[in-house]
Specification:
With about 220 residues, the protein is α/β, with parallel strands linked by helices. Helices cover about 45% and strands about 15% of the residues. The chain has nine helices and seven strands; from the N terminus they run αβααβααβααβαβββα. It has helices spanning about 5-10, 20-25, 35-50, 60-65, 75-100, 110-115, 120-135, 155-165, 205; strands spanning about 15-20, 50-55, 105-110, 140-145, 170-175, 180-185, 195. A five-stranded parallel sheet has the order 3-4-2-1-5, sandwiched between helices. It is globular and about 50 Å long. The two termini are about 35 Å apart. The structure holds glutamic acid (GLU).
Amino acid sequence: MTAKERERLSRAQRLVVKIGSNALCHPSGELDQEVLSSLAEEISQLAETKKRTILVTSGAVKIGLHKLGQSRAKDLPTRQAAAAVGQSELLSSYHRAFSAHGMPVAQILLTQAELSDFKRYLHLSNALDALISRHNAVPILNENDPVSAAGVEIGENDRLAALVASKINADLLVLLSDVDGLYTSDPNKDPDARFIPVVEIVNQEIYALAAETSSF
Ligand code: GLU
């Protein structure tokens, strides 16, 4: 990363940080408390320098499947049930982790409707603004998986985070995942996959590197 890019990152005041299921949980589906604690600590340190974070978290389905003793979501109702069970576990863990830093957490569950309907989106944006600007709270967002209809779901939290970041004019979007970044192909399948550290322009060539998710 160049000095100019570092400088640009350090100026960011309003951040959207997304953490993926595999980064947040052990392979068994249990929450990794160490990851959670360091995430809370870093976000609270940012808050001390007036940098405000909106957290987009995955993990509900993975944690819920573990709690329900299922190895995978074999159908949509199982996925929805797992998401409902996992989400409450997820939020209570975030609540504990951020309480240690005196920061309240605020759960916001979204569907495609809030992101595509102007009035709903305006309410969302006002609520987020009040939480981070007035109350030093950490909004914790996820898709409302138990009610998201198949075919019109947001689907991936990378997408949810990107949409929220652009709608609230965030200065920075950070995606925390178990993959280092963009590769020329899937590094889990292709030993020759090359890491691309910086993408200046999203052209056809870069666009063509996008592939389907390998998560559940
Ligand atoms: N909303 C899903 C969950 O909480 C995660 C979706 C994704 O993996 O991006 O488990």
